[in-house]
Amino acid sequence: MRHRLLPFISAATLILSSVTAFAAPTIKIGALFSVTGPAAFLGEPERNTAVMVVDQINKAGGIKGKKLELVVYDTGGDATKAKQLVNKLIKNDKVSAIIGPSTTGESMAIINDVEKAGIPLISCSAGIKITEPAKKWVFKTAQNDSLAVARIYDYLQKHKLTKVAILTVSDGFGQSGREQLKAQAARYGISVISDDTYGPKDTDMSAQLTKVRGSKAQALICWGTNPGPAVVAKNARQLGIKIPLFMSHGVSSKKFIQLAGDAAEGIKLPSGKVIVADVLPASDPQKKSLLSFVNDYKRQFKAEGDHFGGHAWDAVMLLKGAIERGGDAPAGIRNQLEKTRQFHGIGGTFTFTPKDHAGLGKDAFVLVEVKNRDWVLVK
Q1: CB count in 10 Å sphere of residue 64
Q2: Per-10-residue mean pLDDT, the chain, length 379
Q3: What is the largest CA-CA distance in the chain?
Q4: Which of 122, 203, 294, 303 is deepest in the core (most CB within 10 A)?
Q5: Fold identical between 11-143+287-361 and 145-271?
């Protein structure tokens, strides 16, 4: 069972939790997370992690003598609400930077607002369109879905699996993944011979999977976030589908295994390294940050730190570095974010440039497999 920080608490409460007893000027940072609603499995660990890291920074003396003040709003995973709340952060709370939102659709919805206001945004979402083409004020920490697709296709190519079926959710994350799955296929000698979708609230994908079973597909790739992919896993088992099943990084947490149960066994997916941090070689440049995050999160929340909380850890720490180097004005933060080089975070090693505000390469992902209700590295 996952442990929440608290039943959802207000932004005002979060502010107090981060800066109680500090009368000196603070640096106000905004955050938009899907703490409730269908994307809560993303937003809850992101919110918990952001509060945890801000508290750690403040207990260590803040940044150049100033404490961070974190203002968190729950979007419920709704793009319209995210748009309303980002303007509240900009106009009412007057934040210097914003982290989040949790989903691609929400992030795309607020880009024009932060660009117009000149407030740096570090999204925690994966869609490639968030930062491609590069926008002046928008960065991201979640690994691009293009890199996730490449990791899966590398494996398929190595194992001479050339015909795939794809089943993608009909939201921003799924649409972006579908575009990448189709765009990259030919490069790896792969043919997409079945292309179907499902709705974010669908509870049975048997019809789509029956088509896959009747096709000549050698592998099935499902692209979505919980709970849909767990339904796909269960339906595929019920229908006796034997071809390898791959998921996206959108389910890279123990929550997916809990939802899919025995049907998760053998499923492979690309993931950030955090869920296999303990088995990484000592030479891995991310290992120190990964283990620190995992241990701190477990100590505070009695649950495993995951891929999604890691996006918020990276966002806060990237802001910390930018503020240390360039001050806390929005323009200074933006300029220093863009100059970030070789930051070994949770999602990977980040190097931003004027043309690359995603900052990660294909090595940010490893391929993992579910075995005995746990993750193992695919060799």
Answers
A1: 10
A2: 40 43 79 95 96 98 96 97 98 98 96 98 94 97 94 97 98 93 98 97 97 97 96 98 96 93 97 91 92 96 92 98 97 98 96 97 93 92
A3: 67
A4: 122
A5: yes
